[in-house]
Specification:
The complex is a heterodimer. Chain A has helices at residues 2-12, 26-31, 33-49, 67-74, 110-119, 131-135, 166-182, and strands at 55-61, 87-89, 98-102, 105-106, 125-129, 145-147, 157-159. Chain A has a single domain (15-182), classed as 3-Layer(aba) Sandwich (Rossmann fold), CATH 3.40.50.12280. By secondary structure, chain A is α/β, with parallel strands linked by helices. In chain A, helix 3 (33-49) runs parallel beside helix 7 (166-182). Chain A has seven helices and seven strands. Chain A has a five-stranded parallel beta sheet with strand order 2-1-3-5-7, with helices on both faces. By secondary structure, chain B is an alpha+beta fold. Chain B folds into three domains: 3-117, 2-Layer Sandwich (Beta Polymerase, domain 2); 165-198, no CATH class; 214-483, Cytochrome-c3 Hydrogenase, chain B (Orthogonal Bundle), CATH 1.10.645.10. Chain B is built from 19 helices and 15 strands. In chain B, helix 10 (325-350) runs antiparallel to helix 15 (413-436). The radius of gyration of chain B is 23 Å and the shape is globular. Chain B starts with a helix and ends with a helix. The mean pLDDT of chain B is 90. The chains are: A alpha/beta, B alpha+beta. At the A-B interface, strand 1, helix 4 and helix 5 of A face helix 5, helix 9 and helix 19 of B.
């Protein structure tokens, strides 16, 4: 019985390689136009900058509310799937070309953030993701918060939002890469 | 035994200060607290829901230590307060007999400098090495924007010694995209002997920042306590504000609030089903599909609330923007469709022997431990503890549309997995009823800010959120938003040992606790 079921799936089931619009409604595809556009441009720049390999990103939580983390994780889901544009998240800063830092840097994480930055090979592009990472956001000046990421390590690009949506993050990455390319 | 009878039992010791519809405030002397609390917790089986301190030195020269017990049978909270003179800031610790108090007491020692005498483990909790000694941020004479020196005070952790024992430190910066926390495993081979966490890395001083804010200014902070439970935290806070103001929220707003928090529950439960199934066990098919389905719920939130986290709509007094009938139908349709799809995925997952092998008998939490540690939410319910704020202290429209508390018996990660499946199904049924019975009418009631104290409690997808709020002169005097994670983190000390190290991420994901919510 199981064999028949398998054959049925193989020959008559939905193919995973089917076009995106047969899975999603047209409005959903449309909404992501901007995301796709940013993605394609990123792919082009990465191809030139890193001679064909992909851009490796390391996400560091320096005190965020975990909403930023949810959005960063969302970047890898099937709707966004940033791997196809040559971006991928890595487990160690030693493999990273780019750091995503979220949240206002708390006193308790200042040392860890600095250590992560120092562990990354240079040049390393640092992206401050979210209002907190830019200037401390609503927690600015609190006794437990150091402030924006730039108080601890140099920041190359800032993506505002609380938290920024995946499309906004993509646009931020694009801006960072453009800036990096000009140098 | 009714609460009045219980109080009568301690006639000479307890004095009732005030009695409101859902909250009894009582006072005991400093030396009687441990005895009374122990009797309530052990003999009368009242769970300790919250413990916090206040700084009243300007009024009467004392600190207040408050314990809040839940009385589910009568849908009431019992708050027992103690005055601790500022000249001698100590009291007999509750932790000697009530395990659930152990973090609360370490917390109030760090934040207020009150010493619980006899506490078995008085190491620092919130304050890391960098915090100078003698700094107690929640005292009123400490300014919220003080720039502190960098110190290097030791923060010792437990060690096990012996032949072949290894210690594995993990974090605070983890390999995945998750929040920061440090874990210390002492292992013999693959087996975990002891497991200890060092948290509070994301401590931002939220409780201090809330002081002196008016009720609307505080809301952004409340919604950003834990990004994934924004609606529930906002609702707990609003409930507290409305109770103080004596504001009756319109029925439509109450029902919309229930719908929003249920949406949040469905979104995050789908996330957890995908995360436990996919990232926890390495069955990436589950994760790939689950996260895709969760994205649909997040996009639904974008359409309804204008952001992807169900935040912004719940405000003191009601709902900020009405949700049209069309949108309500859309909420229902999208959630039902999302679950229909996710259900298929979970059926495939539960069909896999390898998958079940990882989940079953992993991270068992005995009922006794769950009760002793004061576990809340799915963690408690998957260990046979029947505890759910929606039934015990109904808020929003749960009094009118009650839910049945789902519990599981197998105590392990598998129980927590099936628990979530059942809860989503229940939420969908509830949402359908709410949408069908939705009345027309107002969605806002004016909130006249008054001084006073109230408790707001909400069963978020993660568990019981309590917001203790005290308003004085129209601004927040003290606000304690207690995230369920705070109660559940210590459970890892029980759930971890005996399992192998690679199972820890799975156990961790089965609770999916918030670091930010604990650290405040």
């Amino acid at each position: 019985m199981k064999t028949f079921k398998l054959l049925d799936t193989l020959f008559f089931g939905k193919k995973v390689t089917e076009k995106k619009d047969s899975f999603f409604s047209p409005t959903e595809v449309e909404r992501d136009v901007e995301f796709e556009k940013a993605g394609r441009e990123i792919k082009k720049i990465i191809g030139k900058l890193y001679s064909g390999r992909s851009l490796r990103i390391r996400a560091v939580d320096a005190g965020s509310t975990n909403a930023e983390e949810i959005e960063l994780t969302a970047l890898t889901n099937a709707y966004y799937d940033i791997d196809r544009f040559g971006l991928s998240f890595v487990a160690s800063p030693r493999h990273a070309d780019m750091l995503f830092v979220t949240g206002p840097v708390t006193r308790n994480l200042e040392k860890a953030l600095l250590a992560t930055y120092e562990a990354a090979p240079h040049p390393c592009i640092v992206v401050a993701v979210g209002d907190g990472a830019i200037d401390g956001g609503i927690w600015q000046d609190s006794y437990a918060v150091v402030g924006g990421v730039d108080k601890v390590i140099p920041v190359h690009i800032r993506i505002p939002g609380s938290p920024p949506t995946p499309t906004e993050i993509m646009r931020g990455v694009l801006a960072a890469l453009r800036k990096h390319k000009e140098k | 035994m009714t609460i009045q009878e219980i109080i009568a039992e301690f006639k000479e010791k307890i004095t009732i200060v005030s009695e409101k519809s859902d909250l009894i405030e009582a006072k005991v002397s400093r030396d009687d607290l441990a005895e009374v609390a122990t009797a309530l917790f052990h003999d009368h089986k009242l769970p300790l829901s919250l413990m916090f301190a206040t700084d009243n030195r300007t009024e009467d020269g004392s600190f207040g230590v408050h314990t809040v017990f839940s009385v589910p049978a009568e849908k009431k909270w019992l708050k027992i307060s103690v005055e601790v003179p500022a000249s001698d800031p100590q009291y007999p610790a509750l932790t000697r007999t009530i395990m659930a108090a152990h973090w609360y007491e370490r917390y109030l020692r760090d934040m207020f400098g009150i010493t619980p005498v006899g506490h078995p483990d008085l190491r620092r909790l919130v304050q890391h090495e960098n915090m100078p000694e003698g700094i107690h941020p929640l005292c009123k004479d400490f300014l919220w924007n003080t720039k502190l020196e960098k110190a290097n005070v030791p923060y010792p952790m437990h060690h096990v010694t012996g032949d072949g024992i290894f210690e594995i430190p993990v974090g605070p910066i983890h390999a995945g995209i998750i929040e920061p926390g440090h874990f210390r495993f002492n292992v013999a081979g693959e087996r975990i002997l002891t497991l200890e966490g060092k948290l509070f890395f994301t401590h931002k001083g939220v409780e201090k920042l809330l002081e002196g804010k008016n009720i609307m200014e505080a809301l952004p902070f409340i919604e950003r306590i834990s990004g994934d439970a924004a609606a529930s935290h906002a609702l707990a806070y609003c409930e507290a504000v409305e109770k103080i103001a004596g504001c009756a929220v319109p029925r439509r707003a109450q029902m919309l609030r229930a719908i929003l928090t249920e949406c949040e529950r469905i979104t995050m439960h789908i996330h957890d089903l995908a995360n436990i199934g996919g990232m926890g066990t390495g069955y990436s098919f589950i994760a790939a599909n689950g996260f895709r389905i969760k994205e649909r719920m997040m996009r639904l939130s974008q359409e309804i609330c204008g952001n992807r986290f169900w935040r912004g709509l719940i405000v003191p007094g009601g709902i900020k923007k009405d949700i049209t009938d069309e949108d309500l139908k859309k909420i229902l349709n999208v959630s039902q469709a999302a679950w229909k799809e996710m259900e298929k995925i979970t059926i495939i997952a539960l069909d896999s022997e390898g998958f079940l092998d990882r989940l079953q008998y992993t991270g068992e939490l005995p009922k006794e431990a769950a009760e002793a540690f004061g576990a809340v939410g799915p963690a408690a319910r998957a260990s046979k503890v029947s505890r759910d704020v929606r039934r015990d202290h109904p808020y929003a429209s749960y009094a009118e549309f009650p839910i049945k508390v789902i519990t599981k018996k197998s105590l392990d990660v598998f129980a927590r997995y099936r628990m979530r499946i059942k809860e989503i199904e229940q939420s969908l049924v509830l949402m359908q009823t709410l949408v069908e019975k939705m009345p027309a009418g107002d969605i806002m009631e004016k909130v006249a800010v008054r001084d006073g104290f109230a408790l707001g409690a909400v069963e978020s997808w993660r568990g019981e959120i309590i917001c203790a709020l005290q308003i004085k002169n129209g601004v927040i005097e003290r606000c304690v938003p207690r995230d369920p994670s705070f109660c559940n983190w210590a459970l890892f000390g029980i759930m971890g040992p005996g399992n192998i190290v690679p199972d820890f991420p799975l156990i961790n994901k089965s609770l999916n606790l918030s670091y930010s919510g604990t650290d405040l």
